[in-house]
Amino acid sequence: MAESDNKSANVLAQETAQLEEQLQGWREVILAGDRVLRWEKVWFPGALIGVTTLVFLLIYYLDPSVLTGLSCTVMLICLADYFVPTVALKVFGSNTWTTEQQQRFHEICNNLVRSERRVVGWWKRLCALKEEKPKVYFASVVSGLLAVAWIGQQVHNLFLTYLIVSFLLLLPGLNQHGVISKYTSMAKREINKLLKQKEKKTQ
């Protein structure tokens, strides 16, 4: 068991180091984005929502086709991948990088690797459920897709995408400031109260 844990930790450290190397040119930009997403200043959440709203209003106004939107998105990614490392090096310089910044950059890369592992783990569990309990897998997947299809039918696609993107952008800050844990604890307490009341009624 200890050997397995050590091996997993070594693999995690290796994958984190590889990701750090791949994102080396983006490290200053990533740290700046991390500060915004964690709401280090009180006006950051408003700025996030404002910029997101502006982008989606622009998309709504232009109303591009799927192919045009996809092409523009990929083009912007390619331009950013080409220009950002060069511009970041000129703006921030290489001598201003501190130990604290390197530590935070390492933590971000480590969290990204862990998140990727969680997604892969969920996918593997889903595949295992398909092999072991195909009826449960079929019912779960079909029910989930039907629910998503119904939501998509009731809410405008662009507005639904706007809500999802806004929530994902605000999620790190909500988690950092304890909002998620606060309401999760409240929900757990309410569920426990309901379960206890149900037990009393059955007795």
From TrEMBL:
GO terms for cellular component: Sec61 translocon complex. Keywords: Membrane, Transmembrane, Transmembrane helix. It comes from the Eukaryota. The chain crosses the membrane at residues 42-61, 67-84, 136-153, 159-180. Its main location: membrane. InterPro entries: ER_autophagy_membrane_reg, RETREG1-3-like_RHD. The keyword RNA-binding does not apply. This is ADP-ribosylation factor-like 6 interacting protein 1. It comes from Fundulus heteroclitus.
